[in-house]
Specification:
Chain lengths: ~280, ~300
């Protein structure tokens, strides 16, 4: 009984701390961005002509679009590759190869983002530059971002598939189903939730990635007209300008942090709402 | 009652611990005073200096201050930023002993004295394979405002120009815009970068690009074989020697600003900043050391 109570207190305290940290960050963002919002009003961040904070232009819309385009694009690249890799490891790979493949994917997860950025800048961008421009654009950033979040999808899908009851697969095989039919009709639907949370985590990681995108996306604040046009994400905006920003400029940068937080929370709420309704059915 | 037991056990232990800490404190204090008394001599500098001002000068000043504090352990130097304007205001108000300014003093600031500690030059860079020899003032402005979009219009090959620009607030951006008299919203660039190295890598990676970086950075990279080339400006070659001598046009002095009669400690620190002892620190920040006589106010 005593140990039970102690554990209750400890888990409650730790849970409260992790929740409080999120709230504290939000409160901090709100406090730092209040001067700018109060002075400019929220609508100017969507209706101004451009982003030139030192000349009094504060339009954030192109950056919100660029953030969404690169992150969603990255997940579109990472999801098929990651799921395919998980299926391969569990059903198609010979045993020694599956072990090595897993290890390689884990290694990919451990590569620091600045190394990805440097690789993209020195190797990938000059190749993409043959299509015109400097090679630093949303396309380059999306590819590298896709590779960065690939391990998240692959490893979580792998774990979800491995956790499926063995009997399902054996039963399906006993019914005479082929390997591809088992994967398509039993494994992927059964592991849907695990794969879904892998994709979700990958998306939030892509939204939060700063360094590699900053090095590769070109950072021009303009509404992107194609994947090959440069763009600046909200996080890159903060990283680029914060170190040199004076008081009012700084506050405006915190608004772009707040905007990013808003985008992420909308996505998280939307996905968890959908997940909940599915679960209820 | 468990609380009773806790209390009786707790108090003596606590006071034991307190006396132990007191003992420790005595030891450390004794150690401190004996150490400083052995080092102390009558000529030893002591006291506190406050520097405020330019965020360009501040990292250099911080490094120099660290070295100065190592040599003079009883001196404390506090470096704060806030822009050249704040540095000058603070010196006038007496809030700071020394102001930092990344520009020459204006005519209405003649009540103060500027001591140059380094120079910062900004040079235009292109890919090493680019055949262009030099760009005129008008050509650079036209390229950066997107009126010229092909190298053949300025005497080069038939190739599209990619313009590399810096993020707002960067010191090199300010020097560049001021020199060419462009206001930032009218610049139409293809890539915006942050650090100098990012600009160098971008230009080195693509043949049709043009950018501008701190000359110190570019020279170091060219020496290590990065395929970029510095373009001369107004007929003056872009190199650190020309920045140091002041003939290169797109450059600015990094100054320490004081009232006409600074304290002894402040003038000692300024002399240290201008001495050859800190040239390695100046170079490590990609600035150019000035070869002026120590102590001579410029």
């Amino acid at each position: 009984m005593r140990s039970d109570r102690a554990l209750t207190i400890v888990t409650r305290a730790l849970a409260a701390i992790s929740a409080a940290i999120v709230l504290l960050v939000v409160v901090f963002l709100l406090r730092e961005s209040t001067p700018a919002v109060r002075q400019l009003g929220i609508s100017r961040f969507f209706t101004d002509a451009s982003w030139h904070p030192l000349s009094g232009q504060f339009n954030l819309t192109p950056m919100i679009v660029a953030t969404l385009v690169t992150s969603v694009g990255a997940v579109l690249i990472a999801a098929p590759l990651g799921i395919a890799s998980a299926v391969f490891v569990n059903f198609y790979a010979p045993r020694p190869i599956s072990g090595w493949h897993r290890r390689l994917i884990e290694l990919l997860a451990g590569i620091p983002s600045v190394v990805f950025g440097l690789w993209g800048l020195v190797v990938l961008a000059p190749i993409i530059a043959t299509f015109g421009g400097s090679g630093q654009n949303l396309f380059t950033a999306t590819i590298v971002l896709g590779l960065m979040v690939l391990p998240t999808v692959a490893l979580l899908s792998d774990a979800a598939i491995a956790a499926l009851p063995r009997e399902w697969i054996l039963g399906a095989a006993a019914l005479g189903m082929g390997r591809s039919a088992i994967v398509g009709w039993i494994v992927l639907p059964g592991a849907r939730r695990g794969i879904g949370s892998g994709i979700m985590l990958a998306l939030t990681r892509a939204l939060g990635e700063t360094m590699a995108v900053l090095m590769l996306a070109g950072n021009i604040v303009e509404m992107p007209s194609s994947l090959l046009s440069p763009g600046r994400t909200l996080n890159a905006n903060i990283a680029l300008e914060l170190g040199y920003a004076s008081a009012s400029h700084r506050s405006v940068l915190f608004v772009s942090g707040l905007m990013l937080m808003l985008v992420v929370s909308v996505i998280v709420l939307f996905v968890s709402r959908r997940g909940a309704t599915k679960h209820d059915r | 009652m468990p609380i009773e037991i806790d209390r009786t056990g707790f108090y003596p232990m606590n006071s034991n611990f307190a006396s132990f800490r007191l003992l420790l404190l005595c030891w450390t204090l004794a150690g401190c005073s004996s150490a400083s008394s052995t080092k102390n001599n009558p000529n030893e500098l002591s006291g506190q200096l406050t520097l405020t001002g330019s965020s360009t000068v501040a990292p250099l000043a911080t490094e120099i201050a660290k070295r100065f504090e190592q040599q003079h352990p009883s001196v404390r130097i506090d470096v704060q930023t806030g822009g050249s304007g704040k540095g000058i205001t603070d010196v006038r108000l007496g809030v700071a002993d020394i102001g930092m300014a990344s520009r020459p003093l204006a005519s209405d600031e003649a009540d103060l004295t500027a001591h140059q500690i380094a120079a910062d030059g900004v040079g235009l860079i292109v890919h090493a394979s680019n055949s262009i020899k030099e760009l005129s003032q008008e050509q650079v402005i036209a390229i950066y405002t997107d009126e010229i979009n092909n190298w053949k219009d300025v005497g080069g090959e038939d190739k599209e120009i990619s313009v590399v620009h810096k993020a707002e607030g960067r010191a090199t951006l300010e020097v560049f815009l001021k020199h060419f008299g462009i206001d930032n919203p009218s610049v139409k660039s293809d890539v915006i970068v942050g650090e100098n190295e990012h600009a160098v890598k971008t230009v080195a990676g693509t043949e049709g690009t043009i950018g501008y970086v701190s000359i110190g950075t570019a020279e170091a990279d060219i020496e290590s074989g990065v395929p970029i080339r510095l373009l001369p400006l107004d007929g003056v070659a872009a190199n650190t020697a020309n920045v140091a001598s002041g003939v290169f046009p797109m450059s600015r002095p990094l100054n320490l600003v004081t009232v006409d009669s600074p304290s002894e400690l402040a003038s000692k620190f300024i002399q240290f900043c201008q001495s050859a002892e800190v040239h390695d620190l100046v170079k490590s920040q990609y600035f150019v050391p000035v070869t002026s006589e120590p102590g001579v106010a410029k």
